[in-house]
Amino acid sequence: MFNAREVSLTNDEGPILGSGWIHMGSTLLLVVSWFFGFKLLKSDPRLAGALLIGGAIPAALTILQFVRLRRALGKAELQMKEEPVPLGWSGNVTYVRPLRGATVRSIEARLQCEEYATKGRGKRRKEWREVVLDEPLTPQSAPMLEQLRVQIPLRIPPTAPPTMWENEAQIVWFVRLRLRMAGCPDTRSSFRVQVAPAVVER
Amino acid sequence: MIRIELAQERVRNGERVTGRAVWSSGGDPAQSIEVVCGWRIEGRVKRRETIIGRVDADASARTEVVLPFEFEIPIAGPLSYEGKLFRITWEVDAGAGRDVESQPFTVAPRKWDPKEWVEVEDEDTPSP
């Protein structure tokens, strides 16, 4: 279940492109406009052309933004010397992200512990989420060329709950970062941290 | 009448909860006496119980039975928890005929030892 070793958490779950609704909307617009565009291609080529081009613009902008972000920022990693960590643990984790031409204006980091609960199946399935712990972290970034390297002092409160997952209930710990950028769009990162059901006693 | 006497009200995951169940007939006979240990989750989730151990004893033709028990709490937990969406409660339940009794206890985190959390090859559970 758990494996204590030096790890790089590459499961960056943060949205790199912002809200998913924008991309869903642009995809839907692309599908609908292309559907009618191809239907009207023979009867009204001018209107069909406008639909095909107009409908593709939001999707093209999304792809362009994604390419810009990937080129400028690459993939993020959170490096930890050990995982899982126990309750009461304190130490540094390192956030690493390539920077190609972009600069960081500010970094906001938080440690969050969240509860998830689900009930029912199919259409009757309900989901709940509650943040049970939310603490600001103080990242310390070292200026480096071509790479962002941020040391984040982390402390898991000894009285907090450990990571837990059952069929319908979960307790999940996250390190979340919000990066305000210059030279590319702002972005966010989110990493799951495994907290073992054991406590550091001093 | 049945009652549960717990030796500890607070144990750590990986440790044992011990005690005894004492039943006296009081004129109400029972065939057997059973003690189970487990945890339940309830709240916004569907209530669910998990039993981790069970002991029983024959009570027929007897007026009093003392049944000692010892259950090992899994190292993986879960720990007792009172959250916003759900709570986890550990308890020992005893039953003899129509007599039932429950005794809750707390499972707190064990002392951290990194060696305990090293993955053992071909085993899904951590080794204590």
Task: Give a description of the structure.
The complex is a heterodimer of chains A (202) and B (128). With 202 residues, chain A is of the alpha+beta class. Chain A is built from 2 helices and 12 strands. Chain A has helices spanning 20-39, 45-73; strands at residues 7-9, 77-80, 85-87, 90-98, 103-119, 126-137, 140-142, 147-155, 164-165, 169-182, 187-193, 195-199. Chain A is flat, with a radius of gyration of 22 Å. In chain B, the strands form 2 sheets. In chain B, strands 2, 4, 5, 7, 8 and 9 form a 6-stranded mixed sheet that branches. Chain B has strands at residues 2-6, 10-12, 16-24, 32-43, 48-58, 64-72, 81-82, 86-96, 99-108, 110-111. Chain B is an all-beta fold. The radius of gyration of chain B is 17 Å and the shape is globular. At the A-B interface, strand 5, strand 6 and strand 12 of A face strand 10 of B.
Short description:
The complex is a heterodimer of chains A (202) and B (128). Chain A has two helices and twelve strands; from the N terminus they run E-H-H-E-E-E-E-E-E-E-E-E-E-E.
Provide the β-strand percentage band of chain A. Answer: 35-45%
Q: Note the gap between the termini of chain A.
A: 26 Å
**C-alpha end-to-end distance of chain B:** 38 Å
Q: Major sheet of chain A: size, sense and barrel closure? A: 5 strands, antiparallel
Shape field of chain B: globular
Radius of gyration of chain A: 22 Å
Uncertain segments of chain A: 1-6
* Count of runs of 4 or more consecutive helical residues of chain B: 0
Query: How many strand units of chain B?
Result: 10
Q: H/E element string of chain B?
A: EEEEEEEEEE
Category from helices, strands and their pairing of chain B? mainly beta
